[in-house]
Amino acid sequence: xxxAAHSPATTGKTFDLGPAxxxxxxxxxxxxxxxxxxVSLEDxxxxxxxxxxxxxxxxxxxxxxxxxxxxxxLLPVPSTVEQHPNTEPGCTRLVRADNLAKALGVKQxxxxxxxxxxxxxxxxxxxxxxxxxxxxxxxxVLACPSTGNLANAVAAAAARAGWDSVVLVPKTLERAxxxxxxxxxxxxxxxxxxxxxxxxxxTELAGEHEDWAFVNVNVRPYYSEGSKTLAFEVAEQLGWRxxxxxxxxxxxxxxxxxVYKGFNEFAQLDLIEDSPVRIFGAQASGCSPVSxxxxxxxxxxxxxxxxxxxxSLAIGAPADGPYVxxxxxxxxxxxxxxxxxEVVEGIRLLARTEGIFAETAGGVTVxxxxxxxxxxxxxxxxxxxxxxxxxxxxxxDAVQDGIGPKATVAPSTEAVDEALGLR
Amino acid sequence: xxxAAHSPATTGKTFDLGPAxxxxxxxxxxxxxxxxxxVSLEDxxxxxxxxxxxxxxxxxxxxxxxxxxxxxxLLPVPSTVEQHPNTEPGCTRLVRADNLAKALGVKQxxxxxxxxxxxxxxxxxxxxxxxxxxxxxxxxVLACPSTGNLANAVAAAAARAGWDSVVLVPKTLERAxxxxxxxxxxxxxxxxxxxxxxxxxxTELAGEHEDWAFVNVNVRPYYSEGSKTLAFEVAEQLGWRxxxxxxxxxxxxxxxxxVYKGFNEFAQLDLIEDSPVRIFGAQASGCSPVSxxxxxxxxxxxxxxxxxxxxSLAIGAPADGPYVxxxxxxxxxxxxxxxxxEVVEGIRLLARTEGIFAETAGGVTVxxxxxxxxxxxxxxxxxxxxxxxxxxxxxxDAVQDGIGPKATVAPSTEAVDEALGLR
Lengths: 423, 423
Fold this sequence. Notes:
By secondary structure, the first copy, chain A, is an alpha/beta fold.
């Protein structure tokens, strides 16, 4: 059975995915028509979308909707994409984080706060693109294996679009992520295994159910393009330019590769200057296969069995690991990993300084930035963007031990003053 | 001790709060200079901000930032407000809810989805305005009594601004709201009492601590104006016009009165046509003093002891109750209340149809809209806006009994197919 064996009948059909022209294999550049396929049968490497952009101007983007669809001319979606019911993700805040910058001793930090998306993580971006492509390919069910944020995004997007969903999660997932997936009333299944088991299961199911679009499996080439919008927005929000440094959390590694691709496409279209941007990767030490490979000087990523509170990053066999290593090395970045204790400290530091409550993945990013600064790998004099990709409300267990009310008091001013040390 | 006795020295000082001109008492219209005061000493009614707007054009608003500050010329804030660190709330989605409309049998519903705000409730709007006014008045500490959402918003806004915060909550508050208040590292105190006890305590403390701005007590006239931005955004997002009907949840009642005021100000400034809008109120039956007064034909609201899962609406002595009754009656609206079971059904209905996960207050709004439709009070042929003011992740306990995975399965395709009834 091949990757394409059971996808909706595509032979001879052409699909309107806007500027997307064909699929190209990442290793040897073999080209093939647009279809719901994700692996090249020529060289067995992942397939990626190639485009025929034509001219795209800043004014066209600025006149577009306040969502990722303002960038539809750079995404594999039909030009009418925003007319179909979708969650309208994107255009989240880019916050100038002077308090955090001061605390870390650096010149300038910006927080890209993707907790403002509809289901409060960056996954709404990629799912919206996957749904648009899946609709064009004729799929009927939106599906995914997930560590949680993707489950929330798929279940919500399917509900909004009036589609059925099949969402597979490890049974050990955080309560908030389970409930926020279940509430949309699709088919949520808890799987007795870790994420890598669930992911393998999804690949098998994608081959057997011809009308199921597993967003991160059989429509992955389209889905993953959604992450480019993080780079697009950062560049537009900075006043049409790249930052000098950006720190990106690594799960499968897809996001980091697409952030890089997004900046490159903007430069290629002369929307921004092609200035250098150093790309840094962040992992939790309990699941740090890419960080280990980077530090060991390897090109290949050795799979690990995850054991970290940063469950949204707990992918032991990251599909895009080798590409991440390549990009980080060629841009002059670095990859580092942090302990669970440092993750919690990272969450608290960001909350305390900027009033932004990130999930564990955000804690990983902040703590890794701190560690890279201390090691002299991040330049404190360069403008730095941190990607905060998910919400603290989804990973409350991670912080609950260290925080809470200062005191429980009787309803009297004396009791309050005493609790605050004011009398 | 009067309301103004211990506020920062204001005698003879003038404050730059943009278009705000003076304070006026709601009952008899007594006027007094802008100051951190909230009750008229002439007639003991609440003070409200009066303006000298000058000319405000649609173009001025459209050219403004993508936050509530695009409406700064209609708020009691300095013209430089966006230059101070703040959470930049507002400009949340207005979602065309065709699936929900179909499920309820009505022509057109729009969801104003305020879960997209920085701390995921509408409270970020009012707190941002309160902080701006408090800064101008010379306060040093941002404080509040809260049922949860306000606690999150105050603690986050203070952290972002570099201010200390004192946040008082009932000790029985939901875990998510406690943790999300504590993480920003201000002074969070759990009070042994219900919200009305905590509120009384805050009023006493505001009189004793001259540099504490209790956002919803001593700077309440400014704070409450922030809710006007809900009406402003709805009108702008509809293409510069009012909806025909709007359903607003009632806690203190302030939000409903300010939504009404917001539409009126837009009409007064010729930004929109002064078409009729019928305003409806939503309460939980376990705390329905305003609904009871409405149904009983009373002008006075009899306080109750709250007992409902909709804790963010659990204010037994709602300060703006009489004004709510007046507005709802004169616009031709109605007020209804729903049981806790209906609240949960409302949350699930909205999630299932539109992919939006609301907190219990949102469930109250949706369920009340359904009940008002069934009773023939909401017109199914009129365009209706529902205000969804808070996030489902904050009230997980309310939904956890009814929802969860369809099944827990082994990591095999057979197990998945069997669980889904496909073999």
